[in-house]
Amino acid sequence: MDIQYLKGVGPAVAKKLEKLNLKDTKDALTFFPSSYQDRRSIPKIMSLEPGKDQFLVGKVKSIQSIKKGRFTITNAFLYDNTGEIKCVWFNQPFITKILTINKQIFVHGKLEYDSAPMTKVMKVSEYEVVENNNIDRIMPVYSLTSGIYQKQLRAIIGRSLIKELNLLKDPYPEKLLKKYNLIRLNDAIFNYHYPKDQQSYSQAKRRLVFEDFFYLQLSLALQKKRVKIHEKGIMFEFKNTLSKLYFDSLPYKLTNSQLRVIQEVREDMGKETPMNRMIQGDVGAGKTEVAMAAILVALENGYQVAIMAPTEILAFQHYQKMIKYLLPLDIRVELLVGSVAKKNKERKYYLIETGSAQVVVGTHAVIQEKVKFSNLGLAIIDEQHRFGVLQRSALLKKSGEVIDLLVITATPIPRTLTLTLYGDLEKSILDEMPPGRTPIKTVWLRKMNSEWLSVIRSELDKKNQAYWVFPLVEESEKIDLKAATEGREYISKEVFPEYNIGLLHGKMKQKEKDDIMKQFREKKIQILVSTTVIEVGVDVPDATIMVIEHAERFGLSQLHQLRGRIGRSDKISTCILLSLSRSENSKQRLSAIVGTTNGFELAEVDLQLRGPGDYFGAKQSGLPTMFVANLVKDEPILMESKKMAQEIADNIEDEGYLSIIHELKQKPHLYIGNEGMN
Ligand code: ADP
Ligand code: MG
Predict the structure, then answer these.
(1) Which of 104, 151, 253, 291 could potentially form a cystine with 130 if both were Cys, beta carbons 3.0 to 4.6 Å apart?
(2) Which of residues 124, 150, 166 is at a domain's end?
(3) Are residues 478 and 547 in the same domain?
(4) Ligand 2 centroid distance, CA of 473 (Å)
(5) Ligand 1 atom showing the smallest separation from residue 282 Cα
(6) Which residues pair with residue 378 across a beta bridge?
(7) CATH assignment of the domain containing 74
(8) What atom of ligand 1 comes closest to residue 430's alpha carbon?
């Protein structure tokens, strides 16, 4: 029911509730308290200590309002059997009508010493007349929006809950509730708002966390089953023709880790079951060689390959790499990104549809409807956290056949997230760095100083090079660009006049960018001042210094990626983070990046500090909203929900599960890709 028709709401209040995403009484079912107020043991007035938020229950001894100019101040004295206390309200003259003498009331607010010595005064933020249902119990505390009061919101949520919980049917059959030690959904929701005690709270929470995870797990389990049973993939043959040409010409030996993962990929591709694999490896671990192994097998079998990256810059870098590696093998590579001119695009579509374009590199432009492949056999997705389940299924539908899929992630995804998002993927980990890399030393300074400038100078004197990175975000693009430009001026005039300083930023034309990069590679430029365009793919082995300005403005994984641009040879490299920030969060993040070069550890820290929503860029990720669950802390429950999902997927004929399947179908964002499911 539209919440405005609920008793005591109406259009004006409904408008405010909308800001809290409460539009329908149903929305109350997932509008959970942000904290609780334990009114089971109310402190006595005598024992209250000033200086913090407190609550108490007392009887009204006296109450009166005084007008002071435009303001009204109401003073009341409340008492219990230990003493009395003064309470103050601002600008609420009407309460003298509600809080009449001898009424028992609950008040909550900040307790301070009054101007008179030893007397205490409470500045009341919340009050209620005591009734039999609002005392001696744990009360929910909800996030508010302006113009809505806690007491009012409690009443609205309470009424909505009563209405909705009566209609709510728990789709979980009794035997699963028992087996997985879960309470009924109605009870869980009610008790999460009004827990009787710690145990009732824990049980409610367990069920709600389970609920947050379960349907995505079920959807994934069903997809996996469908792929296994109904769909036969391509059995690629490892012919070792193009593969041999390529790998024999490599100037280095593959690491054991690369060899193992390449073997896994080739085996997957040889099987009838479609490959569904994710390669996780830290920056610089050599994931490209694994991707190449897969690409070459597909090409050897006469299939096309699609490579997708989340941004145009990334796509372009993959494209350049592919041209470099594949042109010598006489393979035609095409780039397909949004910014390609229309006429040019039509030509590319044609090349793709006729099969002349053998490898197509692009952004999500590749999954647009107009793109038709002649015989797509393999899709490679460079993940970077930005594609979710949905985009993947769109890509998989691009071909008449069931294609093989390889997901590559440069920024490591913590285990809990992988399980949640890609429960259906096999995983390979590249856990060995190619030889000849020296760990990067990282320091955090508040300001650049002469000591570190001389370290940089001595590196440059040894013919090594440096990156000097400035942050750039879209919202403050102009200011940021100015900072980078001025930074370059300053460095080249005042700090290192004897060296050539280049500037690289995203607003430059591609040709200018290429030109600057070329000069940097050829050592005509010693210090490259840049915004984050160098984040990925740039490979200049003699760059041994990186300075990062305003380091607190970068995400942890971004800093890690950036830092991966140095330390690409056997020389010792140093990353200098500059940040004046004193916030606790910056401190934690910068200490983490100083403390470890392990991208996986950093990803865990990042996730803990930022929470999954930010970590992922929530909406695009395909990650369902988590109302109660915490992806890091609730991993054990996630594992149990996965088990139950598997049990249901394995026994899908069981009539007891119909209601669960029905419920899944009500969730369109999870249900995608499951057509063919009964
Ligand atoms: P990733 O994509 O995992 O960040 P890349 O595949 O781009 O890493 O590899 C980083 C660099 O390491 C590239 O310059 C690549 O040529 C080089 N490289 C890859 N594998 C090896 C190896 N086994 N030995 C030496 N260098 C390697
Ligand atoms: Mg790479």
Answers:
(1) 104
(2) 166
(3) yes
(4) 23
(5) 3
(6) 305, 404
(7) 2.40.50.140
(8) 3
Rounded average pLDDT over 459-479:
86
H or E element in which residue 451 lies: helix 450-461
Same-domain status, 313 and 351? yes
Pocket test for ligand 1, best of 249, 250, 252, 283 (most atoms within 8 A of CB): 252
Going by CA atoms, what residue is nearest to atom 10 of ligand 1? 284
* Cβ 176 vs Cβ 182: under 8 Å: yes
Measured distance CA(370)–CA(364) in Å, rounded: 12
Which residue's CA lies nearest to atom 9 of ligand 1? 286
Q: Are residues 529 and 553 in the same domain?
A: yes
What is the spatial distance between Cα 466 and Cα 561, in angstroms, rounded to a whole number? 16
Residue 428 belongs to what H/E stretch?
strand 426-430
- Are 382 and 403 found together in one domain? yes
Nearest to 38 by CA among 137, 105, 124: 137
**200-257 pLDDT, tens digit each:** 999 999 999 999 989 988 988 887 777 666 667 899 999 999 999 999 999 999 999 9
Q: What pLDDT, on the 0 to 100 scale, is given for residue 619?
A: 40
* Amino acid letter, 264: E
CB atoms under 10 Å from CB of 675, counted, come to: 7
Q: Evaluate whether residue 342 is within a structural domain.
A: yes
User: Three-state DSSP class for 513?
Assistant: helix
* Amino acid 616: pLDDT: 47
- Residue numbers of the domain that contains 482: 441-596
Identify the CATH number of the domain in which residue 329 sits: 3.40.50.300
**Which ligand 1 atom is the nearest neighbour of the CA of 253?**
23
Q: Are residues 1 and 144 in the same domain?
A: yes
Count of domains in the chain? 4
| Residues 148 and 90 grouped into a single domain | no
Could you give the CA distance from residue 79 to residue 46 in angstroms, rounded to a whole number? 10
Ligand 1 center to 283 CA (angstroms): 9
Which among 559, 577, 596 is the end of a domain?
A: 596
Mutate which of 247, 254, 289, 540 to test ligand 1's pocket (most atoms within 8 Å of Cβ)? 289
Question: What's the gap in Å between 619 CA and the centre of ligand 1?
Answer: 32
Q: Within 6 Å (CB) of ligand 1, which residues are found?
A: 252, 254-255, 258, 281, 283-289, 410, 434, 539
Q: Quick check: is 225 in a domain?
A: no
pTM above 0.90, yes or no: no
Tokens of 295: 């690409």
Closest CA to 442 of 568, 594, 597, 553: 594
Task: Classify residue 15: in a domain, yes or no.
Answer: yes
As a whole-number percent, the residues of the chain with pLDDT over 70 amount to 89
Same domain, 414 and 377: yes
Q: 543-576: string of b/e by CB count within 10 Å (b at 16+)?
A: bbbbbbbbbbbbebbbbbbbbbbbbbbebebbbb
Q: How far is the CA of 643 from the centre of ligand 1 (A)?
A: 38
**Which residue has the CA at smallest separation from atom 23 of ligand 1?**
254
Residues 391, 464: one domain?
Answer: no
**Whole-number Å distance between alpha carbons of 114 and 527:** 63
Using the atom order of ligand 1, give the atom closest to the CA of residue 287.
3
Contact 82, 26 (CB under 8 A): no
Tell me the backbone φ, ψ of residue 203, rounded to 5 degrees: -65, -40
> How many helices and strands, by DSSP H and E, does the chain display?
22, 20
The verdict on residue 613 lying in a domain is: no
Nearest ligand for residue 540 CA: 1
Neighbours of 268 (CB within 10 A): 22
